[in-house]
Amino acid sequence: MTHALHCVGLRPRPKFPCLTGDADDRIMKRLFLLVPVVPVIVVTACLTACGSSSGPLRDASQPMMYVSSQRAPAYIADCLESHLSRVRMSNVGGATEIAVGSDSNNSYFVTLTPYNAGSVIKVMHPANAPDDPPEPEMRFDIARCAT
């Protein structure tokens, strides 16, 4: 028996208007080069949007933070007192008010109001107040104590 060897020609790959592309396609190669850059851009944009709100555009009449927590006001107050220096507390009605900073020039005013089984936390930072502790640290400590 003789076997006939047949040469089968490969058919050319379709280039256009095929939507799937292949690794030899120049457009696909360019897109593959951009793939690692896109997550970096997205992460940078998210961090910029979620970053500190300090700066000349911040409205000091609005709360710097206004969040609710499942924690009781007493727990949050004790936690903040243990993590921040120069903290003074007072009770006004059912709310706990916390002044953070030096006695002569407070940096932040935190109001803890009971709400259902948890609390509502409002943090004010006056326009002329010093940034002590720095705003990112203050935000971190509030988040740590609220969760």
Automatic annotation (TrEMBL):
Keywords: Membrane, Transmembrane, Transmembrane helix
Transmembrane segments: 31-50
Entry keyword Membrane: yes
Top-level taxon: Bacteria
Protein name: Sugar ABC transporter ATPase
